[in-house]
Structures are given as structure tokens and as C-alpha cells.
Amino acid sequence: MNLSNIKNEALLQNTKNLIKEENRLLAKILAHFLEIDARKLYLEMGYGSLFLLAVKELGYSEASAQRRIEAMRFLKRTPEAGPMVEKGNLNLSNLSLLERVSREAQATHAQSVDALNLLQARPASAAEAETKLRQHFGLKNKKRIVQIEMDEETYQLWQKTKQQLATPRDAEAIKKLCEALPKTNSQTKVRQSPEGRIAGRVLRRTLLNQAEHRCEYVSPITNRRCDNTHFLECDHKVPYFLGGKTLQQNMRVLCSEHNKFVCQEWRGRS
Q1: What pLDDT score was predicted for residue 122?
Q2: 167-190: buried (b, 16+ CB within 10 Å) or exposed (e) per residue?
Q3: In this structure, are residues 30 and 23 in contact, taking their beta carbons and an 8 Å threshold?
């Protein structure tokens, strides 16, 4: 499929139309999963569970099958979610998350509906959504499993460190070490050279706080500000390569992608 000749406006509109169709298809697929489950069709087909049918007969990966089954179960208990899926207000990941957390909380139907509305109120990352739901249901924060690979010398050093900290548990030892790190003095001022290219620690912190730790790029077409809160960089409004100074009034916060995008635009003009 060659899309290189399509104008930007048409490309964007076509994508939006396809996403609407994708949302409608997801709603239909989950409805079919519901009916297959209700008829226990997987048993007739010789599978011991809907999960096995989804993987072996329908061709889903195990993770994809699990997400759709969890989403289907939440829809079964909370049919109010159905129209939201079709409209694109609720994605597969959040549906799956709603099922897992509400099941853990043994939520009533009313509580599940409240949780559903909570996730709809403001778009959030998967981690933020899970934190909001766990707080909503009064559940403890989920523990994370982190695997660390180390050589034998580092491992022995880590064992000695745990002994010195008087804790045999890795998580507790890491927490103690993190809490023992020296706190940075926010009052310490470091002179920022206007001629230097890189924003210093104090200036960077000032810019991030001013931007509320969010990319400050605003689209000249839609007037929409970027939502990205990750990979933030300090950028010169008047580029450094055109003589722009590293001063607060000439600096802003951009995500790495918008920083590259703006730089390319400037270089195209010069």
C-alpha cells in the first residue's frame, strides 16, 4: 500500500476513519466472544477453555487472547462499557485492567460502573490507570517484579551490602539505600552561562516546573498542546545554532520527538 502521495489532511482523516472502524470491530469481536462463551462453543470444538480456542482456533497470541477474554468478562458484568468501546472511549488495555482490578476488589456492579467512569474522565497511561483504580477500590499498590542480571563479583558485593544493612530481602535493602541517598539542596544556585549550549541543573529544574513537567509544543494547526511527560528536553526558542542564548526567557521544554521536529523546521528555513 503506497500512501506517500496522500495529502496530510486526507492521511489524518483516513486514519481517524480506520480507528473508528477498528473500535467498532473490537466491540463486535468482544460481542462474539460473549456469545461463544455463553454457548460454551469451545467445548463442542474440543477445547477445554475459551482461552485455548482463542489461541489454537482463532490464532491469537496468548497475551492477546487473555486481554480479550478479560475485556469480555468485564463487558458481561458491566454492559455499560459496550457503547464506550464502540465509540473509542475505552480501549482494550483499560477493559482488561478494569476486569483484573475489579475482580481482585470483588467489586459490585455499581462500583465497577464508578471505576469505568473514573477511567473515562481523563486519559491516563496504563500505570496511572492502574494506580487510580487500586486507590479507588482501596487496594494495596501492586508489587512489581524486577529481574536484575549481575556477575558473580557484583552478586557477592550485594550480599555483603545486605548484611551491612541488616536485611536479607532485596526490596528492603534497595529501599534503604535509596532513602540513604543525600538529598539535593534546592537552594544551591549554579551560575548558568548564556553562552553554554546545555541548560544546567538549576535552569532545567526551573523550566520543568514552569512547564509542569510536560512538553510545551503547541500545534499551530489545532492549537493543541502535546501531552507527553516523558523524554523531556530543554530547547532554545531561538536555536543555539542561530545565536540563541541559554537564558530562561529563550528556553522551553519539549519532548524529544518535538525537539527533533522543531529543529528540522528551523534548519529547513535557514
Answers
A1: 61
A2: eeeeeebbeeeeeeeeeeeeeeee
A3: no
Task: Enumerate the β-bridge partners of residue 236.
Answer: 251
Same structural domain, 131 and 206: no
Q: How far is CA 173 from CA 144, 160, 164, 257, in A?
A: 15, 11, 10, 37
Q: 0.70 cut: is pTM over it?
A: no
Domain contains 126 = yes
Count of structural domains within the chain: 2
Terminal-residue alpha carbon distance, the chain: 35
Cell of 65: 487472547
What is the rounded CA–CA span in Å between residue 137 and residue 111? 8
pLDDT in tens, 128-180: 888 888 888 888 776 667 778 888 888 888 888 888 888 888 888 888 888 88
Q: Which domain holds residue 54?
A: 8-136
Rounded CA separation 14/25 (Å)? 16
Task: Find out whether 228 and 257 touch, Cβ atoms under 8 Å.
Answer: yes
93 with 79: CB under 8 angstroms?
no
- What are 235's strand-pairing partners? 252
